[in-house]
């Protein structure tokens, strides 16, 4: 299979968000002429509000409101001047009071996103390195990536994995002055904590380690003076730490605060911190409201508020404990996450809760992996005990209904989140009026049945799959050993409703990445060949292209068959130890797009699919006469002009010396083009090709050195379709003979000579193929993974 093109991240997010918007759970507008915090009105329905991040309810405190109103009356709606020149008259009091909360030097910023953009490039020097927790907030990651332009290495660890962090520290310790680890204090989706005390101990062990915490979700509801979770764990910050808190969210106003114990660094950041210098300062109303909130934080009242919230959190935890609701992380923060697994289950669940009168947040990609969709509930002082109990009762009642309506269950949710669960079920062999059958070899499948439904256009006809089984089994290297699964779902009359085949094998994780990332990763693979590799359960195989899935669109049990397939794929993924499911080779307008997306798959764009359709009794002269004038000129000058200088032969089998030559040419192409970054196929594959009647080889040799093979196309013959599957070339002679273009042209000639009706000409080099008359179409894959770590790590490598 050709490499899947780099995923357009924004397109993937847009797909998911559009789906959620259509389901009525995202990009909503609150309505009504007032807002209390306890309830929120959506489409004229008053809902109890369990989605706020104002955990202490201070945004509705009369003292903050009065301070903001007075400030507007005195100073206007804004103070339109850079703070580097002069701050509005209210700033001094705010800075003094916030300093009193932390007893460390502070910098007030417009918001945390601009704060990170100002602080990180200032604090991190060119001689330093950055390590990110892969769940640290997007605003931190985005600011850190700016430093790649200064060649600061940016690495990533799995969430809260201190062993992995220590390994990364050791790796960077020799070449870097400081090593910055960046994490959240409280993580905004699951409400789980950073291991702050353990991180401090790691900092004591490795003096190069500096800690950068974004604690905006830990602010106010915990800690001395409401200074947040990190401060509650440490009491005092050491000079190797930077801490971000917020003046919005629980604090009740706007803005954020950097706490910087290192006075020299504090002065540098405050003097010139990029956006901190050039961005507008906080509006007078925000400064006044924040000052009023800081006064509350410096009083004993903050502990009363914290205690009252603590009681509500404990009450919610007690109620949840009495249910079977899949709470993803058990903690005492105000943030809770109930897993639903598939997005469509999340949509259904949120809508049900809204109809019951409760507003909650949907946790959605990219904040979480698509398969880790769920409902985020936040507890605040606005919530009263009776409505907290009402919410838990509603969730306990409606989640089973949502699971049932979306054809899933708690076992699948537990599996998606790697939670403790009941013993996994056996494969679902039957369903109402359907029979699920799965075999591990094509020899157990009726040949005529398979070829009539799946095997008409590519290498994956019955004979081709037997060839692949014999080639990719019993090999020395693990990447050359594939597991095959053939799935047939039949109705009660033994008629196929769905048929497909899957493989499980080792993929390079950067198969989805661009060349920049692959070059970096390949350097690591010189010492560790299996660096960043994963087992993947894939529709089709790495060697096949085209339509791998048959569905009887008119069958009344089509949807039942799809549900059966999805459930069994999850079981198969677990049993095979795969880390990802990939369903591939679909058109943009394929009817299953919405279904796959609702099942937790993200659509990504593959290389364009290229085909050539040949008329009956076609000749190469008639075929080329239909090319455009420009393409005819290309054919004459770039291909036909070089044809007389070449020996062109079609061989049905090769001797051992020829196999060695063509194998070397294939590895040239595979290793030269990281856009095809799969493992190199074994030489055994090419020996088997030479022995198989369906394979043949189009060979190019210079006329003056006829024994020298400079180009080869490896072609498979499948009934009415000709399949040029792989190519091999001598790059030293590539431009001298225009080898690749010549091979494409000779492939078309050969298919016409054999009276094929179609050429499946592959996924890459669409520009060259289009010039020779190929039809080019967009091509997509659907990817499902329960862990975004690898994709995010490779994303760091891709960015420049």
TrEMBL record:
<dbReference type="InterPro" id="IPR015421">
    <property type="entry name" value="PyrdxlP-dep_Trfase_major"/>
</dbReference>
<dbReference type="InterPro" id="IPR004839">
    <property type="entry name" value="Aminotransferase_I/II_large"/>
</dbReference>
<dbReference type="InterPro" id="IPR015424">
    <property type="entry name" value="PyrdxlP-dep_Trfase"/>
</dbReference>
<dbReference type="GO" id="GO:0009102">
    <property type="term" value="P:biotin biosynthetic process"/>
</dbReference>
<keyword id="KW-0808">Transferase</keyword>
<dbReference type="InterPro" id="IPR050087">
    <property type="entry name" value="AON_synthase_class-II"/>
</dbReference>
<dbReference type="Pfam" id="PF00155">
    <property type="entry name" value="Aminotran_1_2"/>
</dbReference>
<dbReference type="InterPro" id="IPR016181">
    <property type="entry name" value="Acyl_CoA_acyltransferase"/>
</dbReference>
<dbReference type="GO" id="GO:0008710">
    <property type="term" value="F:8-amino-7-oxononanoate synthase activity"/>
</dbReference>
<dbReference type="GO" id="GO:0030170">
    <property type="term" value="F:pyridoxal phosphate binding"/>
</dbReference>
<keyword id="KW-0663">Pyridoxal phosphate</keyword>
<feature type="domain" description="Aminotransferase class I/classII large">
    <location>
        <begin position="50"/>
        <end position="389"/>
    </location>
</feature>
<dbReference type="InterPro" id="IPR015422">
    <property type="entry name" value="PyrdxlP-dep_Trfase_small"/>
</dbReference>
<keyword id="KW-0032">Aminotransferase</keyword>
<dbReference type="GO" id="GO:0008483">
    <property type="term" value="F:transaminase activity"/>
</dbReference>
<protein>
    <submittedName>
        <fullName>Aminotransferase class I/II-fold pyridoxal phosphate-dependent enzyme</fullName>
    </submittedName>
</protein>
């Amino acid at each position: 299979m050709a490499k899947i093109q780099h995923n357009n991240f924004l397109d993937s997010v847009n797909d998911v968000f559009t789906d959620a918007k259509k389901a009525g759970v995202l990009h909503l507008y609150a309505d009504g002429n007032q807002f209390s915090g306890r309830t929120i009105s959506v489409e004229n329905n008053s809902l109890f509000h369990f989605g706020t991040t104002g955990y202490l309810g201070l945004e509705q405190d009369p003292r903050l409101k009065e301070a903001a109103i007075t400030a507007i009356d005195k100073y206007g709606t804004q103070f339109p001047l850079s703070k580097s020149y002069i701050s509005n008259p209210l700033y001094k009091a705010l800075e003094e009071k916030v300093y009193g909360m932390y007893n460390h030097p502070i910098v007030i910023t417009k918001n945390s996103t601009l704060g990170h953009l100002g602080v990180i490039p200032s604090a991190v020097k060119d001689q330093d390195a950055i390590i990110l927790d892969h769940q640290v907030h997007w605003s931190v990651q985005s600011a850190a990536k700016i430093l790649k332009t200064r060649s600061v290495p940016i690495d990533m660890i799995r969430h809260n994995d201190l062993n992995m962090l220590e390994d990364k520290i050791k790796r960077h310790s020799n070449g870097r002055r400081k090593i910055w680890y960046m994490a959240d204090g409280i993580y905004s989706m699951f409400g789980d904590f950073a291991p702050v005390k353990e991180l401090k101990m790691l900092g004591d062990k490795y003096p190069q380690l500096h800690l950068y915490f974004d604690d905006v979700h830990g602010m106010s509801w915990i800690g001395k003076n409401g200074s947040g979770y990190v401060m509650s764990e440490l009491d005092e910050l050491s000079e190797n730490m930077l801490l971000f808190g917020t003046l919005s969210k629980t604090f009740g106003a706007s803005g954020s605060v950097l706490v910087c114990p290192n006075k020299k660094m504090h002065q540098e950041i405050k003097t010139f911190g990029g956006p901190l210098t050039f961005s507008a300062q906080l509006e007078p109303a925000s400064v006044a409201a924040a000052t009023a909130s800081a006064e509350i934080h410096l009083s004993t009242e903050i502990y009363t508020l914290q205690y009252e919230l603590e009681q509500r959190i404990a009450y919610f935890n007690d109620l949840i404990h009495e249910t079977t609701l899949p709470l993803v992380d058990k903690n005492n923060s105000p943030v809770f996450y109930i897993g639903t697994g598939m997005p469509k289950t999340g949509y259904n669940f949120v809508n049900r809760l809204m109809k019951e009168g409760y507003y909650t947040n949907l946790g959605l990609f990219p904040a979480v992996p698509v398969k880790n969709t769920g409902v985020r509930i936040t507890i605040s002082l606005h919530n009263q005990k009776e409505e907290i109990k009402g919410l838990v009762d509603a969730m306990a009642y409606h989640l089973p209904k949502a699971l049932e309506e979306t054809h899933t269950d708690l076992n699948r949710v537990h599996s998606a989140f790697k939670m403790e669960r009941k013993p996994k079920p056996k494969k679902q062999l039957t369903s109402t009026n359907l029979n699920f059958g799965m075999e591990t070899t094509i020899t157990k499948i009726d040949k005529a049945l398979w070829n009539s439904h799946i095997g008409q256009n590519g290498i994956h006809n019955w004979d081709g799959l037997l060839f692949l089984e014999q080639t990719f089994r019993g090999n020395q290297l693990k990447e050359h050993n594939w597991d095959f699964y053939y799935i047939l779902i039949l109705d009660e009359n033994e008629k196929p409703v769905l048929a497909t085949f899957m493989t499980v094998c080792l993929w390079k994780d950067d198969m989805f990445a661009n060349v920049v990332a692959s070059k970096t990763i390949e350097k690591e693979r010189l010492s560790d060949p299996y660096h960043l590799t994963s087992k993947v359960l894939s529709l089709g195989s790495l060697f096949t292209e085209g339509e791998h899935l048959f569905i009887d669109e008119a069958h009344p049990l089509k949807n039942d068959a799809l549900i059966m397939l999805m459930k069994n794929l999850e079981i198969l993924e677990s049993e095979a130890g795969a880390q990802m499911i990939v369903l591939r080779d679909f058109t943009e307008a394929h009817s299953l797009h919405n279904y796959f997306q609702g099942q937790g798959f993200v659509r990504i764009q593959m290389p364009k699919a290229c085909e050539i359709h040949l008329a009956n009794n076609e000749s190469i002269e008639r075929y080329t006469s239909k090319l455009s004038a420009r393409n005819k000129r290309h054919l004459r000058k770039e291909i036909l002009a070089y044809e007389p200088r070449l020996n062109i032969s079609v061989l049905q089998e090769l001797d051992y010396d020829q196999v060695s030559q063509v194998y070397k040419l294939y590895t040239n192409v595979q290793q030269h083009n990281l856009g095809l970054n799969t493992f190199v196929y074994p030489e055994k594959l090419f020996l088997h090709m030479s022995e198989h009647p369906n394979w043949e080889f189009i060979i190019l040799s210079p006329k003056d050195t006829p024994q020298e093979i400079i180009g080869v196309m490896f072609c498979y013959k499948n009934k009415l379709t000709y399949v040029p599957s792989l190519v091999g070339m001598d790059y030293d002679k590539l431009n001298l003979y225009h080898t690749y273009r010549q091979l494409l042209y000779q492939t078309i000639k050969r298919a016409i000579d054999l009276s094929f009706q179609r050429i499946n000409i592959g996924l890459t080099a669409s520009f060259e193929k289009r010039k020779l008359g190929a039809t080019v179409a967009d091509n997509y894959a659907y990817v499902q993974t329960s862990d975004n770590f690898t994709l995010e790590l490779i994303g760091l490598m891709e960015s420049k």
